[in-house]
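Researcher: Let's walk through a ligand-bound prediction step by step. First, I give you the protein sequence. Second, the SMILES string for glutathione. Third, you return the three-dimensional complex as structure tokens. Ready?
Model: Ready.
Researcher: Here are steps one and two:
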Amino acid sequence: MEYVSPSEVINAQGLRLVLVHHMPSPWGQAVKAMMEYKDLSFTAAAWEGGSGNPELIAWAGNHGAPVVAWNNEAPIHRWDDILFLLERLAPEASLLPEDRAERALVLGLSHEICGQLGLAWNRRLSMFAPIVASGQALEDFVEMARRYGSTPSDVSCADARQIATLNALTARLQAQQDAGSEYFVGNRLTAVDFYWAAFSNLFDLLPPEKCPMPEQARPMFTSMADEVRDAVDPLLIAHRDRIMASHFKLPMEM
Ligand SMILES: N[C@@H](CCC(=O)N[C@@H](CS)C(=O)NCC(=O)O)C(=O)O
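Model: Step three, the predicted complex:
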């Protein structure tokens, strides 16, 4: 995948994606894999860590990535807005079930993985808190941590909340397997399979040959409380490996 400049993405038509550069940002990697699964062609620009994205921030009205844009529509950045756009553009390769109960489950589980105070949100609170507390973090980093709106009480609950979600995901996969399904919901691939595969890197980082990121950034992803690591059940990892092997480009492009 070749990146074009931010201004090319801003001024283009069609589908565009702004992706975090060099890091396996799970929100962005899930979107990229879903676009590829749906056979949607897109133009991508890189989002640089730190404060190097003034053009993109002014255009998207948001500090982070991914950002997705379609023709003249306003750029979007929330995981659910992006999922519904992809569903609209390629409904034939749907990642949301028609059955309303299954659909609610996919959206609820996806929120628990990607949404505010969900699995990744809590993981990020745990990843960032010691770096901010060390007093050694760059001002940009401290500012980014502040944007996530954590409170001291959320930080103190973050590990327990991750464990609860990991246990719920494991129980779900176990029940599905017992019922003869290899997916999180129903009998076919949905968005939640993509989200778990991408977000699993926050709990069990793929090796460098599959996830070629800067070596010095790996410890931030791999350090976690023992109780959190213990909650990463082999079932979750087997599922991630299956989905990654079938539906993600490896090595990951970022
Ligand atoms: N905007 C997404 C979340 C994406 C997200 O948190 N992205 C991180 C990168 S993994 C980010 O952009 N962080 C940089 C920042 O907020 O400045 C959502 O609300 O669903």
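Researcher: And what stands out?
Model: Residues 152-178 form the longest helix (27 residues). The first strand starts at residue 3 and ends at 4.
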